[in-house]
Write a structure and sequence with these properties.
Layout (H helix, E strand, L loop, with lengths): L5 E5 L3 H12 L3 E5 L20 E4 L1 H8 L4 H8 L3 E3 L1 E7 L5 E7 L7 E5 H13 L4 E4 L2 E7 L4 E6 L13 E6 L2 E4 L6 H6 L6 E16 L20 E6 L4 E6 L5 E7 L1 H8 L7 H8 L3 H4 L2 H10 L3 E9 L2 E2 L3 E3 L2 H4 L8 H23 L7 H35 L5 H16 L8 H7 L4 H37 L1 H12 L2 H9 L1
Parallel strand pairs: 1-2, 1-12, 2-8, 5-14, 12-19
Antiparallel strand pairs: 3-7, 4-7, 5-6, 9-10, 10-11, 13-16, 13-17, 14-15, 15-16, 18-19
Helix pairs in contact: 1-4, 1-11, 2-11, 11-12, 12-15
Bound molecules: flavin-adenine dinucleotide.
Enzyme class: oxidoreductase
InterPro entries: FAD-bd, FAD/NAD-bd_sf, Kynurenine_monooxygenase
EC number: 1.14.13.9
């Protein structure tokens, strides 16, 4: 059986690049087709992203890189990260004083890591470029695919030009054994796959837009000491919660912070209603205390006017694969809102799980005669879809729910009490295996759907325990009061119910 297959990867974003590493490491011939002319050129930015977007990389993403078969990869990527140990909540007290309140992500001190999306992508490409069985085809846009006959068509953009600019674009036909669609939220692979399979598809734009701002590094700090360049704590994800909207800041490895305003469309319309931008600084002063001392008002206005105001999309689809010929990974399969910091991490995990399942089926079939690689792959892809779809849907939903947690719940005493109790159980009674939902999602590799099931069980147990804790003394107190004032209560209730004993009988029914 010829084990080397021709694998075409569409999209050289972070997830497509990692998928290419996995495939190349198995000895396949890997061809990567990417719409943009050159990923290292910062002027090329994919749809719905900005150049500077900062991501939180966490365990699932790192674990997938660990299993890529490239010993240098994790080290190479980690060198560009900044650990964030928790959230830093910013606010103003009733007396007008500003405060900062740290909320660690994890009782055991584990951190998530800030990294620049473009920088991470480049580090993956650095390693891919050294692999002899990998070929890049930049400025190639997938325009068509026949998944029954394993053919695809790409528009070749000469010197970055496209038909839209009035230049003739050439089209090429490409054969493949297996196509991996990693072409992001607006995936062309997914679009063409829909013509071959009955795909359920759901796309939602949530009522939130985002726009980027920047907190500059201290100019007085020496270049040799990165940490002294940050004007607020570098080891936190800073949040200014505003209930219906929020402003966040994530550290970058040049001492600056990339900040994002997440807010409903109506708020953007209000701020845009004065073209001079004059409404922006007072809005920040009112709802995000302290920000105008970190970003001067003229810079706030300039960023708001210059940077795009982008939507947030959430996509679910099923299946993620077709026969033996194609699979979707990353945002192409499950674009999600960014509030759990899991979009790319989940995409990386897709790649690890996909190749684990492909390897398993190859091992099962390797001793059998007359089994075509395509039959083995078809079984593997069917299993991949059945395993991965529920998990992709689960993290999509969790990401939507976390928007409320970040912009509002972090201020609630009930949220803080629950976090405190769960972390105490996790730390001091480890035999219970108790963990917060955030820790399970960000610091573990359990299936997302299991995380949801386990945290629902924990919630029920906690609610019952709290009801017991609060309810038992209340019940005891109630009984004591009833006994102590039985005569008075008896007199009072007799008119309505006959006797206290009768009331007790009624309640016991
Ligand atoms: P993309 O990054 O979209 O890459 C797709 C690639 O395919 C692009 O290079 C594109 O040019 C190419 N392409 C598209 N169409 C074609 C075509 N027809 N032919 C050829 N090539 C094509 N995730 C996290 O894990 N942690 C975070 O903290 C986090 N924060 C985020 C914050 C914001 C504001 C946003 C918007 C997203 C955030 N995400 C985060 C999500 C994360 O950015 C995405 O999940 C991740 O970039 C998806 O990677 P991808 O490779 O699947 O797709």
């Amino acid at each position: 059986m010829d084990k080397q297959q021709k694998i075409v990867i569409v999209g050289a974003g972070p997830v497509g690049s990692l998928a290419a590493l996995y495939a190349a490491n198995r000895g396949h011939k890997v061809d990567i087709y990417e719409l943009r002319s050159e990923l290292r050129d910062p002027s090329t930015t994919p749809l719905n992203f900005t150049k500077s977007i900062n991501l939180a990389l966490s365990e699932r993403g790192i674990n997938a890189m660990r299993h890529a078969g490239q010993p240098r990869l994790v080290e190479h990527v980690m060198a560009a990260t900044i650990p964030m140990r928790g959230r830093m909540i910013h606010g103003r007290r009733v007396n007008g004083d500003l405060y900062e309140e740290p909320q660690d992500y994890d009782a055991h001190g584990r951190c998530i890591l800030a990294i620049d999306r473009g920088g991470l992508n480049k580090r993956l490409l650095d390693i891919l470029e050294e692999m002899p069985n990998v070929t890049f085809h930049f400025a190639h846009k997938l325009t068509g695919a026949d998944f029954r006959n394993n053919k695809a068509w790409f528009e070749v953009r000469e010197n970055g030009a496209s038909q839209a600019r009035g230049q003739r674009a050439r089209e090429i036909e490409v054969d493949f054994d297996f196509m991996i669609g990693a072409d992001g939220a607006h995936s062309a692979v997914r679009y063409h796959m829909m013509k071959f399979t009955r795909m359920d598809y759901q796309q939602v734009y949530i009522d939130a837009m985002w726009c980027e701002f920047q907190i500059r590094p201290k100019t007085t700090a020496p270049d040799t000491d990165l940490m002294s360049k940050f004007v607020i704590s570098p080891n936190h994800l800073h949040i200014w919660p505003g209930k219906e909207f929020m402003f966040i800041a994530i550290p970058s490895d040049d001492g600056s912070f990339t900040c994002t305003l997440f807010a409903p469309g109506s708020l953007y319309e209000y701020l845009e209603s004065d073209p001079s931008g004059a409404l922006v600084p007072p809005f920040f002063d009112k709802y995000f205390p302290g920000v105008t001392s970190l970003i001067p008002p003229d810079e706030l206005i300039a960023s708001f006017q210059r940077n795009p105001h982008l939507p947030l999309i959430s996509i679910k689809c099923k299946p993620h694969s077709y026969g033996s010929s194609a699979v979707l990974v990353g945002d192409a399969a499950h674009a999600m809102v960014p509030f759990y910091g899991q979009g790319m991490n989940a995409g990386f995990e897709d790649v690890r799980i996909l190749f684990e399942i492909l390897d398993k089926h190859e091992r099962i079939d390797q001793e059998k005669e007359d089994v075509l690689p395509s039959s083995t792959r078809a079984r593997a892809l069917a299993e991949y879809t059945s395993v991965r779809v529920p998990d992709a849907h689960a993290i999509n939903d969790l990401a939507l729910q976390n928007y409320v947690e970040m912009r509002a719940s972090v201020l609630s005493p009930v949220y803080r009490l629950r976090k405190f109790l769960e972390e105490a159980l996790s730390k001091y009674v480890p035999s219970l295996g108790w963990q917060t939902k955030y820790a399970r999602v960000s610091f573990g590799n359990e299936r997302y759907s299991e995380v949801v099931a386990k945290t629902e069980r924990q919630s029920h147990l906690l609610a019952r325990a709290l009801a017991g804790l609060v309810g038992a003394p209340m019940l005891a107190g109630g009984i004591w009061l009833l006994m102590r004032y039985r005569r008075a209560v008896d007199v009072g209730l007799r008119a309505a119910f006959g006797s206290v004993d009768h009331v007790v009988e009624l309640l016991a029914m």
